[in-house]
Design brief:
This protein is of the alpha/beta class. It is built from 15 helices and nine strands. Strands 1-9-8-2-5-3-4 form a seven-stranded mixed β-sheet. Strands 6-7 form a two-stranded antiparallel ribbon.
Length: 340
């Protein structure tokens, strides 16, 4: 697939990252937030492709032309969540008002002892899910990310909390290493969280309708879910302004199954269900969309790998051999369960 989002250079430089980290850690979040206004203005003026991608997305999610203020507000919202990553990664949760919805559904999924595959996106803050360490301290949370993307920021975050950095599973690990690490974590009844709205190089994609237009979504998260045969939950950490985040958890499947006789059709149905829920939450918090590239025109390359030819699928044989589990067809998407 095309990887236009990877071709854009990392925003910021080491010096200014050090300045922001220093201000944040010494003066606190309120003072640091003030600097997000000029930071957002700088990138609004300097990053033309991101500005155009923001306008395209906002026009589709808002259903009307997007103004320059709308685009600036979008970039500012992103800047605030990047700042908050410093505090969330260092587990300074007391600075935030984090409200969780759907935790009973997550608890039910964990009761089976098979772990939970938590599927998220670049909508809102995935790092806000780290608050689960307070709500469910007995449950390990492993996050699958590409550690080579945004390397400078990742280095600062890892320095803030080296122990937490070790819980990350590197999606770039060669061969079956990443998939085996995921399976081991699930065997330990951990929560494994990964993002499902962007593809990696050489990963297959399939089109689904998102906000009224076809967009490519990666297949590897769903192929992995079908292999490991554990409950699948959706998760969205929406930034609501100020110090508030809303965490939403939804049951997606008790055990995802893909019928080999109708493989393409089954994957299309799965992707569309995910895209529909993603669109639902994008409309709830439209400025939380942090894919600053042409999401819809980032279409699969004609020369892309055939369906299922991904790093995760390459690891499917050893993982499936260790799993040996079977399950019924995927369940319908559950309603959101609000925490009392």
């Amino acid at each position: 697939m095309s990887t236009a989002w990877k071709e854009r250079g990392e925003i910021g430089n080491t010096f200014w990252l050090r300045v922001i980290v220093g201000i944040s850690m010494s003066c606190g979040r309120s003072v640091a937030q003030f600097f997000m206004w000029p930071t957002a203005l700088y990138f609004f003026l300097r990053r033309g492709p991101e500005r155009r991608a923001s306008r395209q997305y906002l026009e589709r999610v808002l259903g009307r032309p997007a103004s320059a203020w709308n685009v600036f507000r979008h970039i500012h919202c992103f800047s605030c969540t990047i700042l908050d990553r410093l505090f969330l990664f260092s587990e300074r949760f007391r600075r935030f008002d984090i409200r969780a919805h759907g935790l009973p559904a997550l608890d039910r999924a964990l009761e089976g002892g098979k772990g939970v595959l938590l599927i998220g996106s670049h909508l809102g803050s995935f790092d806000a899910l780290r608050v689960l360490s307070l709500e469910r301290p007995e449950v390990a949370v492993r996050i699958v990310i590409d550690v080579e993307h945004s390397q400078k920021l990742s280095q600062f975050l890892n320095a803030l909390n080296p122990a937490l950095a070790t819980s990350i599973i590197n999606a770039r690990e060669a061969g079956p290493a990443a998939a085996i690490a995921i399976k081991q974590a699930l065997d330990d009844n951990a929560i494994v969280a990964l993002l499902a709205d962007r593809g990696q190089p050489n990963n297959a994609t399939q089109m689904a309708n998102f906000l009224g237009f076809p967009a490519p979504f990666p297949l590897s998260p769903w192929l992995l879910a079908a292999v490991v045969k554990t409950p699948v939950m959706l998760a969205f950490g929406l930034y609501r302004g100020g110090n508030r985040y809303d965490l939403h958890f939804e049951a997606f499947s008790d055990c995802l199954a893909i019928d080999r006789n109708r493989r393409a059709e089954a994957l299309s149905e799965i992707l569309q269900r995910f895209a529909d829920r993603l669109a639902h939450y994008a409309r709830l918090a439209p400025y939380n969309w942090f894919n600053f590239y042409d999401f819809w025109n980032n279409v699969p390359d004609p020369a892309a790998a055939p369906l299922g030819d991904t790093a995760v699928q390459a690891a499917a044989t050893p993982v499936a051999a260790r799993s040996g589990a079977h399950c019924a067809d995927a369940a319908d998407s559950g309603d959101l369960v609000r925490r009392p």
